[in-house]
Each structure stands twice: as structure tokens, then as C-alpha cells.
Design a protein that fits this description.
about 325 residues; Quinone Oxidoreductase, Chain A, domain 1; Rossmann fold; 2 domains; 6-stranded parallel beta sheet; 15 strands; about 25% strand
């Protein structure tokens, strides 16, 4: 038996959410059985738990799109008992039971070895959000964005993706501007590396198709009008790495920034990223994200605190990252 947070479908938008004792035999099929040590609360997890979006595709569901732990059993030669591993994405917590549990059984293809230099808890302090932030940084660099090209805007700055993106970019020498709806968090954002703060109200309403050129590049986790305004405000030849939809899935924009300024809109997916790309991102996170920055941007809870924290996260009252100790 093991402890898990289980979501059960109801006739209401929000599922029933309860900590439950489950039999290991009920775990879904997979090549590797993992003793989970830590998970983390991502925006998608909060949507699933609150029912604010139809994230869950199979019921009942153990949410949690991330986890880190130790292999208990493996029928795949790449992993053996005792190996430290982590997982991000692949539909876990949506179609396949996820990390808000003491045990998980998954496909070996979905796992990566725990990066050297990071503990299981630290990898979950990074989580899918921080890993996505690194993928965004890598995408900008792939497109030739360099620190001497001008400032880089990060939207959703107080969130998981935004906060880690600021820390990574600033330590690579970029001048970082941070867009946030919580200007009271200015000290925290500047400690992460932001040099200038912008109220999100400047970006989250309908704007002109082409606006004053302000940034050389941007990392956007917000979508909707914010992404449209960011694209309209990027300098000639600039790049926008888009990875989220906190404001909405729509993109109410025009082609003007792309055909008149040569702006590149570069999509970033973390769920199905190839193994080599994942390994590159995690290796860089281990090398480039200081432990003290990570610790100062992270809160830790047990499974009993997840439901409340999910509601707070969606209402914009959670700063940075949230680690879940599934054994607490």
C-alpha cells in the first residue's frame, strides 16, 4: 500500500480530491516502478485539481506531472534498482498516474537520470516550470539572441517559469525586464536578477498591431493579449519564446510584427521534448542555477497542503516554486 492524492470525477467541474491509501497493484502499466521522494506543483497540476480546465483525461487520476525518486523495480536495461531518476511531462498526471504519490510506475522512455549536482528535492524545486524556463533560454540562444542585443522581457515573472527564467538569463549576462501583476514582489524579482519591473496591466489588454520597439527578445508563459503585445513590442529581428497560457490560449495578434520587423515566435514544448534535449537542459540547470537562488524561490508542503496551494496558485498568490514532500 502507498499514500497518494487521488482525483475522482464528480458531476461538478471540480473533482473530488482526497489523500488515499492505494494498492501497488492498481498502478498503471510501465517498465519502471519508482519510490517517489518529491514532486512539485505546476500550473497544469493546479488546473487539474481545481477543475478549472479539463486537464485530466483518465479517471480516477493521481495528479502530478513531475516527480523525482529512486527505482524500485525495472524491466528496462537502462535503469536498475537504486537508480535516482526524475520525470517531467509525457501526459503523466493527465492520462497516466503521476507524482503526487509515494509510488509511480511509468515507461522507461519518460525518465531521465537525476542530474549530477542536484538532489531530488532540488530537481523538484526546478520542476517542469524551471525546466521549461531553461528550454526557453536555449531556444533564444538557438536563434542567436545574445546579451549585447538588448533587454529580454520575462512575463509572468513571479510564476515558476518566469522566476527561473529571470535567474537563468541574468546569470548569463542578459539585462532582464520582468512583467508582473504583483509589484509588491519587486525586491524578490530584483534579487533574482531583474533590472526593471513592468506592471502586467501594460500588456494584458488589447493593443496596437505594431508598437514601440522595446525588447530584443522575450520569454512568455502568459499567452493571449500579453503575448500579442509582446510580439508587437519586440525589436526588429527579435525572438519571443512562447511556452504558456496563463492568461489564455488565444493569440489576438496580426502578422505585422513578423512581416514588418522579422520577429520570430518560437514555440517551446516541455512535455514531449526529446531525451537529448531534456538531458541538455537538466545538465545546464545543474551548472547554471545557484542553489541559494533556488532555495530562496521555493516553498515546501506535504500532500495535505496541495489542494489549498493549487487554489492559491491559480489566483496568483504563490511566488516561485512549490516542492511537495510526498512522504511528509
Amino acid at each position: 500500500m502507498f499514500k497518494a492524492l487521488l482525483l475522482t470525477k464528480t458531476d461538478q467541474p471540480a473533482p473530488h480530491c482526497a489523500i488515499t491509501e492505494l494498492d501497488e497493484a492498481k498502478l498503471p502499466e510501465g517498465d519502471v516502478l519508482v519510490q517517489v521522494a518529491y514532486s512539485t506543483l505546476n500550473y497544469k497540476d493546479s488546473l487539474a485539481i481545481t477543475g478549472k480546465s479539463p486537464v485530466v483525461r483518465t479517471w480516477p487520476m493521481v495528479p502530478g506531472i513531475d516527480f523525482a525518486g529512486t527505482v524500485l523495480e525495472s524491466s528496462d536495461g537502462r535503469y536498475k534498482k537504486g537508480d535516482a531518476v526524475l520525470l517531467n511531462g509525457w501526459g503523466v498526471g493527465e492520462r497516466h498516474w503521476g507524482g503526487f504519490a509515494q509510488k509511480a510506475r511509468v515507461k522507461a522512455d519518460w525518465l531521465v537520470p537525476l542530474p549530477a549536482g542536484l538532489s531530488a528535492e532540488q530537481t523538484m524545486a526546478i520542476g517542469t516550470a524551471g525546466y521549461t524556463a531553461m528550454l526557453c533560454v536555449m531556444r533564444l540562444q538557438d536563434q542567436g539572441v545574445t546579451p549585447d542585443g538588448g533587454p529580454v522581457l520575462v512575463t509572468g515573472a513571479n510564476g515558476g517559469v518566469g522566476s527561473i527564467a529571470i535567474a537563468l538569463l541574468s546569470r548569463l549576462g542578459f539585462t532582464v525586464h520582468a512583467s508582473t501583476g504583483r509589484m509588491n514582489e519587486a525586491a524578490h524579482l530584483k534579487a533574482l536578477g531583474a533590472s526593471e519591473l513592468i506592471d502586467r496591466a501594460e500588456l494584458n489588454a488589447a493593443g496596437r498591431p505594431l508598437q514601440k520597439e522595446r525588447w530584443a527578445a522575450a520569454v512568455d508563459s502568459v499567452g493571449s493579449h500579453t503575448l500579442a503585445n509582446v510580439c508587437a513590442s519586440v525589436r526588429y529581428g527579435g525572438v519571443v519564446a512562447a511556452c504558456g497560457l496563463a492568461q489564455g490560449m488565444d493569440f489576438p495578434a496580426t502578422v505585422a510584427p513578423f512581416i514588418l520587423r522579422g520577429v520570430t515566435l518560437a514555440g517551446v514544448d516541455s512535455v514531449m521534448a526529446p531525451y537529448e534535449r531534456r538531458m541538455q537542459a537538466w545538465k545546464r540547470l545543474a551548472q547554471e542555477l545557484p542553489a541559494d537562488v533556488l532555495a530562496g524561490n521555493t516553498a515546501k508542503i506535504g500532500l495535505s497542503g496541495v489542494a489549498d496551494m493549487a487554489a492559491r496558485q491559480l489566483s496568483g498568490h504563490v511566488r516561485g516554486r512549490v516542492v511537495i514532500d510526498v512522504n511528509a
